[in-house]
Amino acid sequence: MSGSNFDQTGIVPNTNYDKTTFRFNGEQRYGRLTLNANVAYSIANTKRTLTTAGLYSGGGNGSMQSLYGWPITFDIKNYINEDGTQNRPFAGTLPLDADRDNPYWIINKDKLTSKTNRFTGGVNASFKITDWWDIITRLGYDQYSTNDYTFIAPGSAVIQLYQNGRLSKNMYNYNYITTTVMTNLHKTFGNFETHLMLGSTSENTQISSQNHWGYNFVTAGTISFNNIAQTNKFFTDGTTKKRLVGAYGEAGISYKNIAYLTVTGRNDWSSTLPFENRSYFYPSISGSLVFTELIPKSDVLSFGKIRGSWAQVGKDANAYATNTYVNPPYNIGSYVLVGNQWAAGNPKILPEIQDSWEAGGEFKFFKDRIGLDYTYYHSQTKNQIAQPRLAQSGGFIFSSLNTGSVINEGMEIILTGKPIVNRDFTWDIAFNFSYNKGRLGKFLPGVAYFYPTDAQFGTVKAASIPNGGYFLGMTGQPYLRELDKDGKAIPNGRYQVDPTTGFYKLNTTNPVVGNREPDFIGGINNTLNYKNISLAILLDIRKGGDVYNGTEYFLLVNGLSKRTLLNDRQSVTVSGVNSQTGADFNQTYEAGQTYTIGSTTVAGVDMIQRYWSNYAANSMSFLTTVNWLKLRSLSLTYDFSNVVKNKKVIKGISATAVGTNLFTWTNYKGMDPEVSAAGGTGGSGSTGIDYLGVPAVSSVTFGLNITF
Amino acid sequence: MKSIKFIIIGAILLLSAASCNKWLDVNSDPDNPNNTSVLIENRLPWIEHFYMYSSGVANYRTACQAGVYFAIAAAQNTFSTTWQCSNANSTTPYQTWFVTVSSNVVDLYNTAKRQNAYHYMGVANVYHALGYMQMLDIYGEMPYTEAATGNPSPKPDDGKTIFNGCMDKLNEALFLFSQTQPSNISSLAAGDFVNKGDVSKWIKAAWGLKARYFLKLSKKSDLYNADSILNCLAKGPQSIADNTMVPSFNNSTVTDYLLGDPVVTNGIFNYAAYGSNQRIAHYYYNLLTNLRGAGVKDPRMTKIVPASMADVKLDGNGRVSSFKWNQEWE
After folding, report:
1. Which of A185, A282, B16, B277 has the most crowded CB, counting CB atoms within 10 A?
2. Whole-prediction pTM value?
3. Residue B154 is nearest to which of A388, A394, A614, comparing CB atoms?
């Protein structure tokens, strides 16, 4: 039985996470029957806040968004007036709904919390029918309920409808039950060992949610739905049910400890697919050979194994993807209006099958002093289920479709060594190196880019490019470069300048500007032990992979980026080729002068500001191909156990100091390049896009471990 | 004996397979009706209402391109100092028609057909023509035959296909309006807030549309037929009483389906006249307020000339309760 508690304050003030867990594990044997039960119960409380943006369709902004953009001439801590209203520097000129909330207003006045109670449990029973045949049954249960509470204070800079406060309570219940029955047979024929396993599983998922929300508190000081008029309170219900039945088998044979061969097959029936496509089968085969057993013993190569496998895995769709549903009704006069949602159903959806093969080997040299593990893999999905943004002339914005294939291929190498093995001092070292190439294969005909996620920040969009293009790609708008005689852009040539604006011309055809996937990643892990001291150092390496610095973009368009201090904001220079005539274009715009653009006269300071708008519009201004070397963790442990003479009460003591994410050496000029922007929903997410987030932290932990 | 064992095993397997299928039959959302079960009298007012946003925004933005209106505010888009009407044309008129209305027109037609609700089918056809002809006018070749049914990448059709398709739909509508609906299904009046179920007004509206659409062929000497246009006009609305007039509701609780319009009313007023970012060209302003120097004000002026509203106050239910006009007249 065990219990634990974890309590952590966030680096944004007034944010917090604490979790308490209880666990129980028990096992009991009754002759041939073994029963095992485990139960865990946890309660987690989160105090959170808005960071990157305000609530959807409500106006307003997030605390980090406001923090990054706050004008440096105003005292940001002075957020509240004596009468309790927000102190807004632009109160005279900007109405509340066009203004921005002070971050201290958001973290002190708004209240956003989550509370999750989770119960998981399982009962296993295994029964040995004979010594070569046993049967196992399992029952698993996972249930959690989350209560979300969101209160936006009256007087916040949100749309007019919500300026008198807004309250939302969401109750989300998740229930998951799984049952498994498996039977195992094994038999040995001479040097061959065989086994056969047959089983079946059922999974039942049920999610129910209720949301109550309302706005406009009538009497100041009370935050409750009872203080909201009947016409301003709304509630919705949601239910999701998903069920799956699977039947599977595995057969294997092995010869001594030298060769192994395993074959599996599984068939699933899912509730989320239409009836005629509901069942899908996926097999696999794998084998390995310890070839060092077949060759004379060698001191150099003490162990060698090669392995290979091919497997298919099937996957079903989300629940309710087969029908088109409608919106909640509207009332106009005495008429009731009902219309379609913007997600179309797909009554012909097929399951997705992923096909992958892998080959590799494991080798040990010099009596296990050096080890090498190598794997190469290739995996490809067929009928990949996705929800691409459709051509809206189809009548809808989204639909769950079998869109094409996603291909991943790569390699992993692990090299371990024990350079020093002495009685008092040992040094273990491990290198790992891996790369993955993610590509989008065939896709829906006519779709140029697939946007698997909503992540669109600054001028870039996270996109996957069909027909062999990057899966973790980015599209954006770069400057246009000079064209050669054949009309092709000269790589790294001069930029085109639009004479009608006086600034660089942008390529607005949305080309691919980067790939967020790294070229390779690797690590070095060193563990040194000297008598009672143990030191572990983990280094993390990455080469390649583009990151878009959307935070710098945001600072720049708000005039807060140091880049805009160029020439003390007194002059900027545009040089390139005239996009219409091809002639050289070289122009410096100075504050205090005026310039004629087309038929308008523009002041120099205006031209300088327009220069920076033009600079911000160029996606390449904020893209970096990032390499990094991180000191990922450093830990030092000292075992004091021999200080304790009498081992009757305290059997052991050790002290540990651990630092994580201590140093980062990188060419990225923003904050920690290990980023993913908030708000990229679904798909490959928004990894590689830095936008007004809370950066990663370094931390140091001290611990004491006492064994009784 | 053996065969009985197999029969029993077979029966158990069959039974478990059947009950297994029943156990897996849970893929219908119990909280949201799906589109095949929507009643025709609920589907039609949705189309009638949301079409007004599409026509309103299309009218306003094309008038902006024609130099009738101007946008004056630096938009939230930091890369432009004035709003580019021509860029904006590719978004809202297209989205408000295709995503909000077009799939509902298809579903209304199909559901009404199953019940022999001829009048509903006819009105669906009229809106079909209104919407696709508007798309044709603004964009030229557009998806038509493959549109509105969930196709992720419908191919465009040429102008001839769209024009002829819409005219066929109008002809079918005229035929359907002449039929009598069965008495046991909802009458047109239950769902039609535009003409309140008056079929004769819809007939006149359809003839009027045919006349207007035939005028599109005026530059094609082999297809243009002045007599048939006059013939259509003779069957179209003849007086104000015959007009199809869309009523406006000062409701302001419903926010538009895809956008954030605050006031439930005339689509054109919503886009053109309500707001502080647009101005009308002085030439047109004079035409509306002082035509030929006669000092006569067009009664529609306040719904066409933009006026910025100041001090907009919403009541407890989010409806506009009071505001001030910043305007040059009165």
Report:
1. A282
2. 0.82
3. A394
